[in-house]
Amino acid sequence: MTEHLPALQVVVPLIAAPLCALLRPGRAVWLLAMAACALCLLIAALLLDRVLAQGVISYAMGGWPAPWGIVYRVDAANAYMLLIVAMIGAVVMAFARPVVEQRVRLPVRKQPWFYATYLLCLTGLLGMIITGDAFNVFVFLEISSLSSYALISIGRDRRALTAAYQYLIMGTIGATFILIGIGFLYVMTGTLNMEDLAARLPAVADTRTIRTAFAFLTIGISLKLALFPLHLWLPNAYAYAPSAVTAFLAATATKVAIYVLLRFFFTIFGAQFSFGTMHLDAILLPLALAGIFSASVVAIFQTNVKRMLAYSSVAQIGYMVLGISLVSVTGLTAAISHLFNHALMKGTLFMALGCVSFRIGAVSLDRMAGVGRTMPWTMGAFVIGGLSLIGVPLTAGFVSKWYLILGALERGWWPVALLVLFTSLLAVVYIWRVVEVAYFQPAPEDRTTGEAPLALLAPTWTLALANLYFGIDTSLNAGVARRAAEALLGVGQ
C-alpha cells in the first residue's frame, strides 16, 4: 500500500467528498470528513519522510509511464507543501463542526454538502501540488476554485455572495490565462509532462509563442496568488466567508498558487530563462515591495479585523514573492519557509477570530471591547499568532523574515532589508489596535458571553503552540525549505 501513497493523497478526499454528501446531517458526516483529513495528513507526513530519506518519488497513474501517462512526482518542494495543506486541512476540519452548525447560511439538511465541498477543495489543492502534469494543474485548480466559491458564498453576511461572485470573475480570468499558457506550451513541445516540458523547452525558448505563454502564466498565477495589484478579490472573500473557510483558504489557497509559480518558473522554464532571459525578478520585486508596504498601511485603518488580516495576507504574500525575486538559495528558503509559517500564523489568527465571532457574533473592533477578559484563552492564541505575524524572535514568523533579510543583504539590497523591518513595525501597529481594544477597553455591561467551547479552542491552540514550537525547532520549516530551495535551483545536482 505504501507504493500507492501518491495516488491515495488525492483519492482519499476525492472519494470521501461524495460519501459525505450522501450521509444524513449529524456527527457521522463530520467524523467521516475528519477521518479523511487525518488520513491525508498521515499520507503527507509519510511521503515527506520517504522523500527526505530516499529522494524523488515518481508514481505513474495506471502504470502508464511518462510522458504518455500522468505521473505524480514528489520531491522535497511538493512533499513540504503537501504537509502544509494536509495539516491545515485536518486542523480546520476539527474546528469546523460548531461553525457549520451555528454560523453558516445553510439549512441543517444541507450541512453535509459543506463537508463534501471542503473535501473537494482539499482534493484540488493537494492535486495541484502533487501532479507532474501541467494540464492536471489546471484541472485541480478548477476543482479547488469552484469549491472555494461555494464555500465563501455560505457566509451569514449577504455580502459573502458578492465576494464569492467577485472571486469567481477574477479567478476565472486567472484560470483562463493559465490554460492559454499551458496550451501554448503544448503546441510548441507536444507534451504536458513537466519533466518532459523542461527538457524540450530550451529548443524553442526563443520563440514568441513561448514568451507569450510565459506572460500568460505569469499573470494568471499572479491573480490566483493575489499578488499586488491583482489582489482585489481577496479582502472581501476573507472578510465575509465563514470563519472556518477563511482560516482554511488563508492558510492554503494562495500558498498553493505560489507553489505553482515556483514549479512553473523554476522547474519547467528554469531559473535561467525565467530570471535571466525574461527578467521576471524585475517585475516581481517592485510589485512585492509595493504590496508589502501598501497592504500593511491599508490594514492599519480597517475596523473589521478579518478584513485587516486579509490585507495583512496581501503583505505576507509580498514577502514570499520578494524571497522568490532574490533568486538565491537564501531567498527561496525564506519564501518557502514563509509558506509554512504564514499558514500557521494566519490559521491561528482567523480561527481565534472564529471563536470571537462564535460568541459575540462579530469581529469589528468596536464589538471586541474587553473580549480579552471574557475570552482569555481565545485572545491568548490571537496574541501568539500576532507575535508570529510581526516576526518576534522565538516564533515561526521570525525564522522566515530572518532568512528574507539575510537574502536581501546577500544581494546588497539593504534598503529592501530595511523595508522588511519597517513593515514589521506596521504589523505591530495593526495587531496592537486589536490588543488595545480587547484588553484595555471595558466590555459592555450587557455582555454575558464566556470563553469559546473546547471544540474551537483545541484546534486554535494547536496552531498557536505550533507557532512557538517551529520558532525554536526550525528543522522542518527552515531545514526542509532549504532542501526544497536547493532542488528548485539545481544546487548540488
Task: Tell me, rounded to a whole number, the average pLDDT.
Answer: 88
Number of strands: 2
Biggest β-sheet: strands ordered side by side in the sheet:
1-2
* Largest β-sheet summary: 2 strands, antiparallel
Share of helix, binned: over 70%
Structural class: mainly alpha
What letter string, H or E per element, gives the SSE order? HHEEHHHHHHHHHHHHHHHHHH
* Broad shape: globular
Rg on CA atoms, Å: 21 Å
Share in β-strands:
under 5%
- Distance linking N and C termini: 31 Å
The tally of helices reads: 20
Explained architecture:
There is one protein chain. With 493 residues, the protein is mostly helical. It is globular. It has a domain at 280-486. It has helices spanning 5-22, 27-54, 76-102, 111-130, 134-153, 159-189, 194-204, 208-225, 234-240, 243-268, 271-277, 281-300, 305-325, 329-360, 371-374, 376-390, 396-410, 414-440, 454-472, 475-489, and strands at residues 57-60, 71-74.
